[in-house]
From TrEMBL:
Pfam family, one: Mem_trans
Species this protein is from: Nostocoides veronense
Transmembrane segments: 24-48, 60-79, 91-109, 121-143, 149-169, 308-331
Localization: Membrane
InterPro entries: Mem_transp_PIN-like
Protein name: AEC family transporter
Length: 332
């Protein structure tokens, strides 16, 4: 999400596809995308430092992004995605890259640290849920030459990973035994899932909303990314010190995200699925993206593992820059 998703159809088309970039342009695109995000986070940091926003304001930003901005953004992004890409080899390699680190954290956190279920879920997301929106779209456009290449990752996360995780988080917060009827209904009451399903339905039916509906949705969706990034910056300044009392957990989630996930996706794509060239680069780069800011939004909303999510996002956002640059240089 270089920054936010463009508001107009012309700008979306511009972002959507470029000729395949040469190596230097690709690396420049990586730095541009990261610089944009870091600068917005620094604005949030300054707002917290100078007392413009406190932690209560940060939570308001997180709630607005979760309840209103992100669902609108999902409609905007997914309504123009190719849903047929959901069944591509790209998706299979991406899925393998997600399952290994997420499962590894769930096992380690259960048997080593004995964390509660909701904290294990946040840690698993931090280890495998990539920033496919506010960073993935521009990186795919300027590094890979086609923003549509990030669509399989977006769909996997928004339609499968996120609903399952939020269902568990909702259930854990409310308590009680698992009931399949409740489990199946609960994702349909989540605004992010509803927004994603609406976007996919529009794409699958090739439906274009009238301007009276489309323009307000795009405008509201445009606040999701800035709200997440500003709120994250406020939390960096006013939240617990870096490490949050669990540096070992941050180290594990960061290694799983920065090293294990892209390595597994690359290995699966190259040796199991026979992918090479630009397709192999696309899988590797999207899997090497840092942990998404909305994981911190979820952690804040549910009051679970907030420091772990915040610190993993910071470490992986800084650490993935050389990983993606290396992938662009060696595979591009």
């Amino acid at each position: 999400m270089a920054a936010s998703v463009p508001d107009s159809s012309d700008s979306r088309n511009h972002l959507r596809k470029h000729p395949p970039p040469d190596t230097l342009i690709a690396v420049d695109g990586v730095f541009l995308g990261f610089a944009t995000i870091v600068l917005v986070i620094l604005v949030g940091f300054a707002l917290g430092h100078f007392g413009v926003l406190d932690m209560a304001g940060q939570r308001v930003l997180a709630e607005v992004a979760f309840q209103v901005g992100s669902p609108a953004l999902m409609i905007t992004v997914l309504s123009t995605a190719d849903v047929h890409e959901l069944f591509s080899r790209n998706l299979l390699a991406t899925l393998a890259g997600v399952l290994v680190p997420a499962t590894a954290f769930l096992v380690i956190s259960r048997w080593w640290w004995q964390l509660p279920l909701s904290e294990r879920v946040i840690g698993a997301l931090a280890s495998s849920y990539v920033n496919a929106g506010n960073l993935g779209l521009p990186i795919a456009a300027y590094v890979l030459g086609d923003a549509a290449l990030v669509a399989p990752t977006l769909l996997l996360q928004l339609l499968i990973m996120q609903p399952l995780a939020l269902t568990v988080l909702d259930h854990d917060r409310r308590g009680g035994a698992f009931r399949w009827g409740s489990i199946l209904r609960r994702p349909l009451t989540n605004p992010l899932t509803l927004g994603a399903l609406a976007g996919v339905a529009l794409s699958a039916t090739d439906t274009t909303l009238p301007p009276l509906l489309r323009d307000p949705i795009e405008l509201i969706g445009g606040l999701a990314v800035p709200a997440m990034l500003l709120g994250y910056g406020v939390a960096l300044r006013l939240g617990p010190p870096f490490g949050g009392g669990a540096p070992a957990q941050v180290a594990v989630t960061s290694v799983l995200k920065l090293a294990v996930q892209p390595a597994i996706a690359y290995a699966c794509a190259r040796w199991a699925l026979g992918m090479d060239g630009h397709a192999l680069l696309a899988v590797t780069v999207t899997s090497a993206l840092p942990t998404a800011q909305n994981i911190f939004t979820h952690a804040t909303r549910y009051g679970r593992a907030e420091a772990l999510a915040r610190d993993t996002i910071l470490v992986t956002t800084l650490g993935c820059l050389p990983v993606i640059a290396l992938a662009a240089l060696t595979l591009g």
